[in-house]
Structures are given as structure tokens and as C-alpha cells.
From TrEMBL:
InterPro entries: AcuC, HDACs, His_deacetylse_dom, His_deacetylse_dom_sf, Ureohydrolase_dom_sf
CDD domains: HDAC_AcuC_like
Cross-referenced SUPFAM superfamilies: Arginase/deacetylase (SSF52768)
Signal sequence bounds: none
Listed name of the protein: Acetoin utilization protein AcuC
Species of the source: Luteimicrobium subarcticum
GO aspect biological process, one term: epigenetic regulation of gene expression
Record-level Gene Ontology MF annotations: histone deacetylase activity
Pathway(s) this gene product operates in, as recorded in its UniProt entry: Ketone degradation; acetoin degradation
Domain (Histone deacetylase): residue spans on this chain: 27-323
PANTHER family assigned: HISTONE DEACETYLASE HDAC1, HISTONE DEACETYLASE HDAC1-RELATED
Annotated keywords: Acetoin catabolism
Protein family (similarity comment): Belongs to the histone deacetylase family.
């Protein structure tokens, strides 16, 4: 086990080179998301907080990528990147993942950033670490998927295992199921994957059902909460409260990796959930608190999905950075006027005025189960499928 850091410290992965992950005009995964977020982060002074260190990642080498990816897939990405060779069977050259020059280096740089974050946390060089460019949770061992080329989230988990962690928890708050990470560790009892997402019956990738609980050697280590469409912040937080704390406490991870895709917001063009920035901030703070409770504070936070580029992503991810650097922001915090002016001038629409949007109070799970409520039935389906494997009572714990 690593020695804890002497004082709170944080690692922020960032470089303008990360903006090179660009599928082209009109694609939802616009690098503007990252640019506006980091400009807001700097404008709020978050990188000036005590103990904050920035790191500029180089592209990961093939050996690092091979810890979670088939070398033949890495070779195919190189071919696509250098010569424009498409390979639809490996997800390269599809509408979701079109080929672009330098794709391998751009995706490998994101991957390396998350590896650096994981190593820093495990070795005690930082208490927390964040890579907002990361969170590419759909990529499989042998294929790109859903805007994701290399799966840096899985890479971060694997790096923690390779450096000595015996149990790692992965927490996915994206509106889409974290299918790629789950598939990589499906048979690995050392990794618990938790995903709360819009039901796969109504949203890509069509997976993540309550009965998906892990492979025969790792039953109970895949945890999926499938939310009904149009679930709002109250429903989202009730689902997190009902499932995440008990499973993390039972699993007792030594490190937590979390993915903070913010596409569950009502303004997001690709999903059907209605989870505001304030509710996402609440869930973020719960993950942070649980990392301290169960893993001595060892926490790696990643970005992910999020396609409301102006009104949602910068605020949601500035909250992630703020939490990681021990400088949480009140939802009433006004956004810097120069940031608002620049955004409004560039986008031709008004920028948001403050950090929060919709304050929300939810009914905690301890208040009781309503069998007539669609959300509560979804939560109970997960608890009944998973909790017995973890030694928990589905109705009481």
C-alpha cells in the first residue's frame, strides 16, 4: 500500500495538445468543450489553489495501450491515423468515430493523461487527480465505439492494479452506460464497475441492465442502474444514494476512478435525462466523500460525454476540477464576466451567469420504497440483482 500524502494535493492533466482529439466540423465531440472548460477553470482561479500541479501528457506508447487494448486494434488505429485506412469492423471510419489525421496520437495522449493521474494518486504524489479530456468509456479491447478510440478510464483502473491495488472501484455518472470499462473487467473480481445511466432500451449503447452483474468469476462486481427516460436530478440522486454507497462500502476499494460525463442534462442534444448541473455537482461531491471514506481519498476523476458545449459542459467540469483541487464552488458563484463576454461573442448566444442552474432536493432511499414508482422499481431491480453477491440485503442495506 502507498503512503498517504502529507497534505491535500491535486494533479490536473492538461495541455492544448489535448484539443487535437477532433472528429471534424459538426461532430458532437467538439474540442471546444475542453477549451471553454479550461478557460473557465483558469478564470475562476482554480489552478491557483494550494497544492495544485499541472501535467502535460505525451502520447502513451503501445505497451501502455496494450494493457487494455488488443495490439492489432492499436495497429489499426495507427493505419487509420497515418494513412486514412478505415476499418468499420473495429469501429474506425464510422459516423461516430470518423478517421482523422493524427487520431492515434490524440487518443493516446488522452490515455496517457489518465495513466499519469492514476499513478500519481497510487504513489502518493497527489491525493486526487483529474483529466477532463478523459473518460472515453465506450472503447472496447478491440474496437472504437461511441466517440471513443482508446479507453483511458479502463487504462487508469488497470494502471492502479498494475501498481499494486488489490481492489479498484470505477464509478460512471455519464448518461450512457459505461460499457467499455465494464467489458474490460467483466471477469475481474478486483474491479467493481458502477454505472447509473439512461436505460439501454432507449439510449446507446443499448446495454447496462440490472441483471448484468459480472462474469462467472466476478459476479456482483458489475453494478448497473438503468434510469427511465426523462429522469430528473431528484431521481438521479435518489438512484445514486440507493446503490453507490452500500456497494462501495461492501467492496472496500483502495482507489476510486470516476467518470463525470455531463450529458444527463436536459439541454444535452443526445440524451433524454433532465439532470441539472447542481444535481451533477451533488453526485460528484458524494463520490469525493466516498473516496475518502473507503479509499483513503485516492481518487481519479475523468470527463466523458457532454454535448451542450456552452451552457453545461464548462460549468459541470469546472465543478469537477474545483472538487478535485479542494476548492468547491457554491452554485451561486458568478462566472467571470470576461469568460461570459468571450463565449457570447464567439457563440452568438448568451453564456450562463452563475455556476449552478437548478437546486434540487431528493428523497433519500432511507425514506422507503414506493413499488408504484418506476424509478424505485428500477433501483430495486439493481439491488436485488447485485446486493446478495456483496453480502448485502436488497431491502435493508
Amino acid at each position: 500500500m502507498p503512503e498517504p500524502v502529507d497534505a491535500p494535493s491535486s494533479l490536473v492533466v492538461w495541455s492544448p495538445e489535448l484539443l487535437g482529439y477532433d472528429f471534424g466540423p459538426g461532430h458532437p465531440m467538439a474540442p471546444t468543450r475542453l477549451l471553454l472548460t479550461m478557460r473557465l477553470v483558469r478564470g475562476l482561479g482554480l489552478l491557483d489553489a494550494p497544492g495544485v500541479r499541472e501535467v502535460d501528457p505525451a502520447p502513451a506508447d503501445d505497451a501502455a495501450l496494450a494493457t487494455v487494448h488488443d495490439p492489432r486494434f492499436v495497429a489499426a488505429v495507427r493505419e487509420a491515423s497515418e494513412r486514412g485506412v478505415t476499418d468499420p469492423l473495429r469501429g474506425l471510419g464510422t459516423d461516430d468515430d470518423p478517421v482523422f489525421p493524427g487520431m492515434h496520437e490524440a487518443a493516446a495522449r488522452i490515455f496517457e493523461g489518465s495513466l499519469l493521474a492514476a499513478s500519481a494518486v497510487w504513489k502518493g504524489h497527489a491525493e486526487h487527480a483529474v483529466n477532463i479530456a478523459g473518460g472515453m468509456h465506450h472503447a472496447k479491447r478491440d474496437a472504437a465505439s461511441g466517440f471513443c478510440i482508446y479507453n483511458d478510464a479502463a487504462g487508469a483502473v488497470q494502471r492502479l492494479l498494475d501498481e499494486g491495488a488489490e481492489r479498484v472501484a470505477y464509478v460512471d455518472l455519464d448518461a450512457h452506460h459505461g460499457d467499455g470499462v465494464e467489458s474490460v473487467f467483466w471477469d475481474d473480481p478486483r474491479v467493481l464497475t458502477f454505472s447509473v445511466h439512461q436505460s439501454g432500451r432507449t439510449l446507446f449503447p443499448g446495454t447496462g441492465y440490472p441483471t448484468d452483474v459480472g462474469g462467472p468469476r466476478a459476479e456482483g462486481t458489475a453494478v448497473n442502474v438503468a434510469l427511465p427516460p426523462r429522469s430528473d436530478g431528484r431521481a438521479f440522486l435518489r438512484a445514486v444514494d440507493a446503490v453507490l454507497p452500500p456497494v462501495l462500502r461492501a467492496f472496500e476499494p483502495q482507489a476510486v476512478v470516476s467518470q463525470h460525463g455531463c450529458d444527463a442534462h436536459a439541454l444535452d442534444p443526445l440524451t433524454d435525462l433532465r439532470v441539472g448541473v447542481d444535481a451533477q455537482r451533488d453526485a460528484l461531491q458524494r463520490v469525493h466523500a466516498l473516496a475518502h471514506e473507503v479509499a483513503d481519498g485516492r481518487w481519479v476523476a475523468l470527463g466523458g460525454g457532454g454535448y451542450a458545449v456552452i451552457n453545461v459542459v464548462p460549468r459541470a467540469w469546472a465543478n469537477v476540477v474545483a472538487e478535485v483541487v479542494h476548492a468547491p464552488l457554491d452554485p451561486a458563484t458568478p462566472l467571470p464576466q470576461d469568460w461570459r463576454d468571450a463565449v457570447s461573442a464567439g457563440a452568438g448566444e448568451d453564456a450562463p451567469a452563475r455556476m449552478g442552474d437548478h437546486p434540487v432536493e431528493f428523497r433519500p432511499w432511507s425514506s422507503g420504497f414506493d413499488p408504484a414508482d418506476e424509478l424505485d422499481r428500477a433501483i430495486v431491480a439493481t439491488r436485488r440483482a447485485v446486493f446478495p453477491y456483496l453480502g448485502l440485503d436488497p431491502l435493508l442495506d
